[in-house]
Structure formats: C-alpha cells, structure tokens
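Marked as duplicate of an earlier ticket. Keeping the data here for the record.
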Amino acid sequence: MNLDIKNQMRKKATLLKLALRTNGIRVEARVEGVGTNIKENINGLYQINKSKNEPLDLIPNEIVLYEKITTKLVCNPQSYFSLRKKDENFYVYSDFLEEPLIQVSFSKRPEHYSWYTSKGTPMKYIGQVMGSDCLAIAIDKQCVHFKTGDFCRYCNINPTNFKSNIPRFSDLEGIGELISVAGKKYRFIDLTGGTFENRDEECRYYTLVGNIIKKNLGKNKISGPFSFTPPDKLSLLDSMYETGIDVISFNLDVWNDSALKRICPGKYKIGKEKYEQALIYAKDLWGVGNSVIQFLAGPWESNQSLLEGTKYWLEKGILVNITTFYPSPGSSLRNIKPKNLSELVSLYIDYGKLISSYGFYPNERRSILTSESGNRSSIVNEVVKGYLTEKNFDIETDLNFARGNIK
C-alpha cells in the first residue's frame, strides 16, 4: 500500500474514532471468541456501555480501526453506526450508506486475563489493558467526592464499583505479582483512580505502588502516566519522582471557572491554584512536557475556552491532554449530548497546531500520555502525528458521517 493511501486510511480511522467515541455503535453481530481470544469488558473503573441485547462481557472491549488506531467500543442502541459481519469479517456501517465504512478487528485478549494471584484473585481485576500497550491499574475504584456530594457530574466511578464484583482496592501483593508476570509486556503502566479523603495519603499510596512496580519490573524507569490528585504537601512528589515514573498528570478536566464549579465541585474546592502549584512543582522535577494536565471536551465549555486553557499551560511548560466526553450510565450527565463532531474536529486540529508550535511533540515518549492504541477516548496522538491536520482535512468530504460519506 502506497503512502498516500496509508495516510488517507489514517485520517479516515482518526475521524471515525472520534465519531464512534461521541455516537457509540450498535452491535448487530455476535463476535465469537470474546473472553477467550478477544479482550472482554471488565468494569475496572468506569462503565460507559448501554446494551439491550448482548451481555456486556460478550461484547469486545475495543475496535481496532486501522494500524494501531483503537477506540473503546461504546455500545449505544440508538447510534446510526453499527458493527456488522460480512463474509467472516467485521465492518463499521452507517445507516445512511449501503457499503461499509471500514473493516475492523478487535484487540487480542491479554494472557494475564486467565491468570490468578496467589490469593486467588483474577489478575484481570487488578490490571486491565488499554489498547495493546498500556496496563492500567485503578488504585481506588471509588472517589471520596461521592461521599461529600462534590463528585464530577460526568463520573460514575462509585456506581460502577458498587455493581461490579471487583474489590475497591487491589492488594499490594497482587499488584506485585501482576507486574512480575505481565508488566514487561507493556510499554505504558497507568495508575489512576478516585480521590482519597486525604490527598497526601493518596500521593504516598501511589508512590508505594510505584515502588512495587519498579521492584517487580526490575527497571529504574517506568513509562507512565500516574494520574492522581495534587497533594497538599508538594514535597511528597520528590519521593514519587524516585520511583522512576517518567510522567504524571493532574486532571482538572475543566478550564472555565464557572463551569469547573458546576461540573467538578470537588476539584473546584481543591482549587486551580493548588493544581497549578503541583503542576509547576512536578515540571521542575520531571522536566518540561512530563507534567501533564488533562481537559475533558464536553458541552459545558467552548472550544475557545479549552484552547485558552491549553495555551495557558503550554506557556508554563505543562503538557495538555484533551479527552472526549461521552455520557456514562449512572452519572448525573447521562442524558447530556457530547460536543458535535464538527466542533471536536476543529478543537483537535487547533490543539495539534498548538502542541507543535510549542515544541511539545515529538517528545522522548513519542506520545502525549499513552499511544493512539492506549488513549482510546481521545485523538491527541493522532493529531500530533499528523493523521488529521488543517492541511489534509476537507469538511465536504471528510465530515459527513450522517450520510456515511467518509472519503
């Protein structure tokens, strides 16, 4: 396949990844091998699927669109996209076009999903794989902000954990065993979870787990990210730095002050100032581009506001990751529609230009946080790699998903 065709396919897959993230997809064909050869869904942290037919654990966890461009398979019975089988292959269709949009595959089931710790805990409950190269471990599968009523309105971490059979905390010995047998298979190790009641204790606990990972990997450097809440005592980050983790992030999620107060009241009470202090302190430790803040592109905040926030942080040497909102069952915003596709395409193209203009990509990690495979709710890696740019994007031929007109 020549380079022009490959580049067109990368652009198509990038746009479709974003469209599927905001619209979801109807699963109209049984996918054989889920839970044996194909990665199944595990409610390790959040649940975003809606399904009236198949049990969720019989639906593939991810769709691989092209090369490593991967998206979380978001079930939505009302979507105009559908997953169908034709001649033993699977395709994404639009209701407005007879021919399929793209042939797809599914992520291979990790070996450790069949293994158990010495205490009999399924290892898949301790660490889930995002894409093909990121092992994600949820430190705390609940968040204290639900206890106080200050939870982020888009979040369903506590309702998800209450309905799952997964323990809120994984024991440290089990984490060590998982890393020992599977950790070296993955390029990235992602630690995240809900906010602790004591944020200094949260930082200490992440540091403890970081040292367990370091010991069981047998490496002095860990490719992260670790994503947690800014501690009150910033000097605690010195000990985290010694774990060898190469990047950390503090996810404020919203830039606009009034929107932050309304959407993320717990983070608002912690305060933007605390987030900024922690991000700057971390940048001085880890270096420019290895201290990251995350935004969530939702309808509560304009593109202009998000780009203003992105520029603010880039000016300070802080890298920015933008993920895409999708309404989660059980959350307060479960009936809120995401930004429309045109808005999101514009946002990510402008984001890519900003990252490039500040020299934040390519970086040593060659990723924003994880890869286009692991970062399944965002196209930040795709845009910084040039798969979708202002130059190669044509609104007439590239954006009309409603008619299935992706050329």
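See parent ticket for discussion. The chain has a mean pLDDT of 94.
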